[in-house]
Amino acid sequence: MKEEGNKQLFANFPEITTSVWEEKIRADLKGADYQKKLIWESDEGIPVKPYYREEDLENMGYLENVGSLKNPSGAPNGWIICQDLRPGKKLEGANRRMKAALKGGAQAIHIHLEGSSAPSPVILEKLLEDIHPGETELHFRGCLGADTLYESLMALARAKGVDPSSLHGSLGADPLGKMAESGIPIGSLENIGKLVKKVKKSSPDLKVIEIDGAMIQNAGSSLVEELAFAMAMASEYMAILTSKGINPVTAQDSLQLVLSSGSNYFMEIAKLRAARILWTKIGEAYGIDQPNNEITIHSISSEWNMTLYDPHVNMLRGTTEAMSSILGGADMVSVLPYDYPYGNGSEFSDRIARNVQIILREEVHFDQVTDPASGSYYIESLTDAVAEKAWELFCEVESMGGFRRAFETGWIQEIVLASRTKKTERSASGRGHILGTNAFPNFNELILDQLDVATTSSDTVKSHSTLTPLKPFRLSSLFEEIRLQTEKSKKRPRVLLFKYGNPAWMTARAAFSGNFFACAGYDIVDRPPFKTVDDGVAFSESEDFDVVVLCSSDDAYGKIAPAVQKALNGKSIVVVAGYPADSIESLRRAGIEHFIHMKSNLLETLTTFNNRLL
């Protein structure tokens, strides 16, 4: 009866074909180019249309017969809430934060041990004091010597009377990832097969290898590159393990794929769903049949997308990234604390990061919908496109002999660097907005006294590297260097927004100019419009202003700009907001050198002013 009622409801509405929609759109565009106006291309080279229909799902080879792309949990959408911690040498503080996290709703702990050797049993005992290793899911990342770490973990378990078979989590062994991150070549991978066999026998629920795809995106790659290269690493580990006589299912179960969730919301959902499609193809190649063909995915909010200035915006970034991870079907999700770039962290920022996921589960009920992205024409189309492009790139890596060989030639680094350069150039120009950094910055924020071990530029290479490493970066770091330079100088250049003339033009250009110079941490003086040019000049001369920005209409600049330039006579740098093409040459002859507008390179312009004023 309900279906019949729906048919009757829509009986009076004729079906609209795609051609009719397209005809209407072109009419509304009034001759404008449809391709340029409404279709944009992602960094992955995927053209994204303004709308999708059911027919867009036809002939999609990667989505055909894949079934549900949800994670394999028993719940409709069950994921593990994970808390990430970097203990460093502050073991007692890390232990306190760990216990607070578990008490506050975390179901797993991801312990970052970057750059350090495996902790001894004594150190591990201190780090995990009052934490039951058999009841707590513990994941380690970045440790050198996973076999030693496992021995320490076993010793701790025996000391606490814990059966080693109850240990679950991951040891975080990733020699290929370490090679990519450090640029240091790796030797034989014989030991990793021995460790997998040993762990499988004593602790079957403990994963050994953590494939760090997140490191690739955090070095600047596109989503397709992150997925393809991570899959290439996973395939290489599978080849190594199966060559040692390890059953393919056992080899697969020893792996955990770690991916970063960035700012491209729908594309990130598609990426995770595409990861399951691609792993099915790889698993089949190693003889793994359904339903055993499953890879565990841990999705972590991105580091490259975080900022030092206005760090509370990182909460918003972490929230959308967590949503992408959950809707995409990740098995485990980590939201990095909003102050992660500062390097210190706190129980408060841990709690906020953790509560993002708790709210999405307990209040938004993301856990109640199975494979929520399924059936969306848009996301399904993106999933197929991401899977296709990632598989093509994966096959190219395989044709070169696998991830290790491709990395040793420098080919992978070149591809990632090209994507990183594209992102950097876009943000430097101001077209790529970084909220709170190069768009709508907090004018009066100062952070120098709050920094602990934060690094504004991560372009450091270990002297013993013989390969080119994948260097981590944050997109905002170049702007942060400029703003920190301003803070360190102990001088905040003062900028007067000289508003005069047409209300609409002066208001818009004053807002643009204020945001422009605030990106460098300058003191912005915004006052009511001047009734006359003489009033504005008098005010400009009454105080010390390093920069006076004329905010008016193009037709007014030919008269007012030379007058202000002459009156100030070098006391302040006169800047014109806009690019009045008809009078640009006469303005230059009058001594005006600086014009800021939508096509100005924001980073280069601010660097020029810092070099002159500080």
- Contiguous low-pLDDT stretches (5 residues minimum) are 453-461
Helix content: 40-55%
Say which CATH homologous superfamily of the largest domain is assigned.
Methylmalonyl-CoA mutase
Q: What is the annotated CATH architecture of the largest domain?
A: Alpha-Beta Barrel
* Rg for CA atoms: 28 Å
**Order of the strands making up the biggest sheet:** 3-4-5-6-7-8-9-10
Tally of separate helices: 23
Shape category: globular
Give a structural overview:
This protein is of the alpha/beta class and 614 residues long. The protein has 3 domains: 2-53, no CATH class; 80-403, Methylmalonyl-CoA mutase (TIM Barrel); 489-613, Cobalamin-binding domain (Rossmann fold, 3-Layer(aba) Sandwich). It has helices at residues 2-10, 18-29, 34-38, 91-103, 121-127, 146-159, 175-182, 190-202, 214-217, 223-243, 248-253, 265-285, 313-328, 347-362, 377-399, 403-408, 411-429, 477-488, 503-518, 533-542, 554-568, 584-589, 602-613; strands at 40-41, 47-48, 80-85, 108-112, 137-141, 169-173, 206-212, 255-261, 296-301, 332-334, 494-499, 523-526, 547-551, 573-577, 594-596. The strands form 3 sheets. An 8-stranded parallel β-barrel has the order 3-4-5-6-7-8-9-10, surrounded by 8 helices. A 5-stranded parallel β-sheet has the order 12-11-13-14-15, sandwiched between helices. The termini are far apart. The model is unreliable at 453-461 (pLDDT under 50).
